[in-house]
Amino acid sequence: MTLSKRDRRALAGLGVAAAFSLAVWFWPESAASPARAVSPSAVPLAEKRLARLRQLAATAPAREAALKQALADLGQREKGIIQADTAAQAQAQMLQVIRRLARAQVPPLELSGVEIGPARPLGNDYGEVLVSISFVARIDQLLNLLADLTAQPELLASEELRLGGGSNKQKMMSVRLTVSGLVPRKLIPEKKGFAF
Known about the structure:
By secondary structure, the chain is α+β, with helices and mostly antiparallel strands. The chain has helices at 5-26, 29-32, 42-77, 87-104, 139-150; strands at 111-122, 126-138, 156-164, 172-184.
C-alpha cells in the first residue's frame, strides 16, 4: 500500500500535533505559573492580618481553659436533672420529693390534691415536667417549703403559686403550687400533626 504525498503530510502534521498535545498535557504546572509581583499596598495588609492571627493564637489556650471550665460547670449542674425512663416516672420522683418536704414541715403539711401536668420542651436539650399540689398552710410553712424545694439536689422550681384566703384566727390559707422539674429532652413526646 502506497501513501500519497498528501497523506504523508497529514500524518506528519498529526504526529506534530500529538507531540505538542502530549507536551502540554504532561508539562509540570509549577514551571508554567509565572511569578506574581507583590503590590506595595498588600504588604501592610498582610502584616496586619499576621498580627491579628498571632493575637488569636495567643488567646487560644485561655479560650480552651474557659471552655473546659464551662463544660465542667455544665456537668455539675446537669447532675440535678431528674433521671427517669419516662416523663411519668420523672413526675413520680418529683411527687416523692414534694411529699417528703411537706412531711418535714412543722407541723407537717397535708396535701389535699395532686395534679400531674404536661411534659413540655424547654429549649433544644431539656424538657420540663409539672406537678401541682394543693394544701392548707401558714405563710411561714409555705416559705419554708419553697426554700426547701430550691435546696434539693434535683433541679426543681416553683412554676405557679396561687393563694386563697383562709381562717383569720389561725392565719391559714389555701395554696396551689405548681412545681417544675428539669428532665432530658428525650423524655418529652414529639408533637405530631400540622404546625400552623
